[in-house]
Design brief:
Blueprint (H helix, E strand, L loop, with lengths): L3 E12 L2 E12 L3 E5 L6 H9 L6 E6 L2 E2 L10 E4 L11 H11 L4 H14 L16 H14 L4 E5 L7 H18 L2 E6 L2 H7 L2 E6 L2 E6 L1 H6 L4 H6 L4 E7 L5 E3 L5 E2 L12 E4 L5 E2 L8 E13 L2 E8 L2 E8 L10 E6 L5 E3 L2
Parallel strand pairs: 3-8, 3-9, 6-7, 7-8
Antiparallel strand pairs: 1-2, 1-4, 4-5, 9-10, 11-12, 11-14, 12-13, 14-20, 15-19, 16-17, 16-19, 17-18
Helix pairs in contact: 2-3, 2-4, 3-4
Bound molecules: adenosine-5'-triphosphate.
């Protein structure tokens, strides 16, 4: 079990009377890829500013390896931040940028160059880039240089503030995997903030979900996806079909739409609540004669091709369902009457 490198104890941050971040208890283990994710205004930037040392908490403590660092300024902390804006020196070369932290520490030119070339290779940048100026590099290349420079600092923790959000989709997808790969290879602790849950899921060992300045859930991507604590988390993690449910005196839970009965699941950590969620990929359009524990009839109103999968929008009475299935060759066209089915065990019972 890795040691905790970073810890927040009962941290609050107020701006005047406004509570931006409230009652945060959090630990990050050494060597972990930890991501803080949440919608706009949930308090991510406020959190990372306190973690980096650009701002102090109003109450509570921040500890690095057990030492209280609340009042230690950013430039005196053994941590380093990679910004969305990158903060590279645009007119200097890639090599000069990467070597900057080493120069500050008085590392000799020959050794600096050797380390910079090593980092270039690690970040899949050709050696020839050493002499290229930053303004001659593409967005993705600059991103790699910024990361190389951060690694040259050899910090205890690397913080990332939405570093990929300005890049196009393909490049972002490539860099997400590269970042994860570099984190694993270097064994460094990465703390990352993003509003993109997809990004968080691909890279992180653990994810903290924030809403209105509070932590709603902390767990592995798998835990959060399959065992969301409440309706907010479930819906933040991806598209869902939501149903109201009622619990009867006998302890069983029924949804009003299908009258199907859901056993109170003991595999789900959440207590049976007043909301039931079925993810689109857990629903299917039934073949003629096929049965399922819960079924609804409806009409296909839209069809979206997602590559290997197809998503169908189905109007069932006053309810709109999203059904996502592997493209099987048996396509269902818009206006087709269909039966949608799912298994009781694929339903998540949550508090709204
Ligand atoms: P985004 O994804 O849009 O950047 P965020 O999750 O990073 O949002 P924060 O920037 O941390 O959110 O802001 C959290 C809340 O605190 C917001 O309501 C914001 O308006 C408020 N806030 C942040 N900084 C200040 C400040 N310096 N003074 C007053 N209020 C602030």
């Amino acid at each position: 079990m890795a040691e905790n490198i970073l810890e927040l104890r009962r941290v609050d941050k107020l701006f005047g009377d406004f509570v931006a971040v409230e009652r945060i208890d959090l630990t990050v283990a050494e060597g972990e890829f930890f991501t803080i994710v949440g919608p706009s205004g949930s308090g991510k930037t406020t959190m990372i500013r306190m973690l980096v040392g650009m701002d102090g908490p109003t109450r509570g403590d921040i500890l690095l390896r057990g030492e209280r660092i609340n009042d230690v300024p950013a430039n005196q902390r053994p941590t380093c931040m990679v910004f969305q804006s990158l903060a590279l020196f645009p007119h200097k070369t890639v090599g000069e940028n990467i070597e900057f932290p080493l120069k500050l520490r008085g590392v000799l030119p020959h050794d600096r160059r050797a380390r910079a070339l090593e980092l270039l290779a690690q970040l899949h940048l050709p050696e020839a880039y050493y002499d290229r100026r930053i303004h001659q590099c593409s967005g993705g290349e600059r991103q790699r240089v910024a990361l190389a420079r951060a690694l040259a600092f050899d910090p205890e923790v690397l913080f990332f503030d939405e570093p990929l959000s300005a890049l196009d989709y393909r490049l972002r997808k490539t860099l997400e995997k590269e970042l994860k790969d570099i984190q694993r290879k270097t064994g460094k602790t990465f703390v990352y903030i993003t509003h993109s849950i997809e990004e968080a899921m691909v890279m992180s060992d653990r994810i903290a979900i924030m809403r209105d300045g509070r932590l709603v859930q902390v767990g592995s991507p798998d835990e959060i996806y399959h065992r969301p604590r409440n309706g907010f988390v479930a819906q933040f993690m991806g598209e869902v079909n939501a149903f109201e449910v009622k619990q009867g005196d006998d302890g069983t839970v029924r949804d009003a739409a299908t009258a199907a009965c859901y056993p109170r699941p003991d595999t789900v950590v959440t207590p049976a609540g007043d909301l039931m969620i079925v993810r689109p990929e857990r629903m299917r359009i039934l073949a003629p004669g096929e049965t399922a524990e819960a079924t609804l009839e409806g009409r296909v109103t839209n069809q979206y091709v997602l590559g290997p999968r197809t998503q169908y929008q189905v109007q069932a009475g006053d309810r709109q369902l999203l059904v996502e299935m592997l493209a099987s060759g048996v396509d269902h066209a818009v206006n087709d009457q269909v039966r949608v089915g799912w298994s009781a065990r694929d339903a998540l019972l949550l508090s709204a």
